Amino acid sequence: MLKMFNLPCQIAGTDEAGRGCLAGPVTAAAVILPKNFKNKLLNDSKQTKLSDRNKLKEIILNEAITFGIAHVYMEEIDEINILNASILAMHRAIDQLNCEPEHIIVDGNKFKPYRNIAYDCIIKGDGKFLSIAAASILAKTARDEFMQEVHNEFPMYNWHQNKGYPTKEHRRAIMEFGSTPYHRKSFKLLPEQLKLSF
């Protein structure tokens, strides 16, 4: 069962979406929830169906004490690498909070200090703590909306379905049509045996 983090202060949960994608930004969210917040649907976004994610997004936006959502785009990912870009996106999301948290809980095992605020990295935290789960929902839905918009620009990659992840269909489209400005140039877009020069 998901729970609130048992510390005597305001806790911001943060998580990212899109780290393993070939195209599009990495997106992070940070959320501070009311201490009495409860919702039976709320879980790790990867374990939540689309209709529930969309319902939860509206609930979180309306009921959170404060939230932030930030994209780090392809050019910056290529420049600083995906791990640093993921952490930067989380920092930028925390920047948007309208009050400074006293503690930050992070999904995963990597983070960099944000100001002088104490933090904990929690493996699979999006399935354990409500504020991280809420952040995962906001990050996932915001990134999916971005990929839906750019799908309309490049429909041959079917991003509205694969969201930029390295599916066989996505890689076939890269073979046929080449890369786009939304692809991460520092990522291996095709397996070695299928590599093309773009």
From TrEMBL:
Annotated catalysed reactions: Endonucleolytic cleavage to 5'-phosphomonoester
GO biological process: DNA replication, removal of RNA primer; mismatch repair
Cofactor (UniProt): Mg(2+); Mn(2+)
Keywords attached to this entry: Cytoplasm, Endonuclease, Hydrolase, Manganese, Metal-binding, Nuclease
Residues binding a divalent metal cation: D15, E16, D107
Pfam families recorded: RNase_HII (PF01351)
Gene3D superfamilies: Ribonuclease H-like superfamily/Ribonuclease H (3.30.420.10)
Domain of life: Bacteria
GO molecular-function term, one example from the UniProt record: RNA-DNA hybrid ribonuclease activity
Subcellular location: Cytoplasm
Every RNase H type-2 domain range: 9-198
Main location: cytoplasm
Annotated Gene Ontology cellular component terms: cytoplasm; ribonuclease H2 complex
Keyword Hydrolase: yes
Function: Endonuclease that specifically degrades the RNA of RNA-DNA hybrids.
Family designation: Belongs to the RNase HII family.
Family annotation (NCBIfam families): PRK00015.1-3
Protein name: Ribonuclease HII
The organism of origin for this protein: Salegentibacter salinarum
Gene behind this protein: rnhB
